[in-house]
Automatic annotation (TrEMBL):
Protein name per UniProt: SRPBCC family protein
Activator of Hsp90 ATPase homologue 1/2-like C-terminal domain mapped to chain residues: 12-152
Gene3D superfamilies: 3.30.530.20
Superkingdom in the source lineage: Bacteria
InterPro entries, sorted: ASHA1/2-like_C, START-like_dom_sf
Family: Belongs to the AHA1 family.
Pfam family, one: AHSA1
Amino acid sequence: MTRTDRVSRWIDASRAAVYGALVDRGSLEAWLPPEGMRGRIERWDPRPGGGFRLVLDYLDARGGPGKTSAGTDVVDVAFAELTPPRLVVQRVVFEAEDPAYAGTMTMTWECAERAGGTEVTVTASDVPPGIDRADHEAGIASSLAHLAAYVEGRGQGASPLGP
């Protein structure tokens, strides 16, 4: 059975600014890692059919929460659709030996103009069963909070997680 997780957040920034942060390498590295993680992009090809490889390191790897290794999640992300300034669709594959993380998850980032800002809705479909729903939704919400801080100018040019 497939699972879909969905999280939304209103951001006090233009739709163009939000979309730009969704498709810019440096911006993604700054805001995308959820709380408790640091990330780096190893490969970058920002076009439909292109994508990127993201390495996420846990700041505290006690208990071995990582999917790729005890302290790391590695994902290959393909851009399935880029429709400025409203939609980014990604196909995400985890690098993991555990079959509970197998398969391709689709992440749809939709940007809708709302009341002087932008509502960003992230819909993750075909979520691998090894990913806990509450943890996943909390991670998406954390990334959206970092995105908001980044595009609202509180974190522009620097990681919202600090140095």
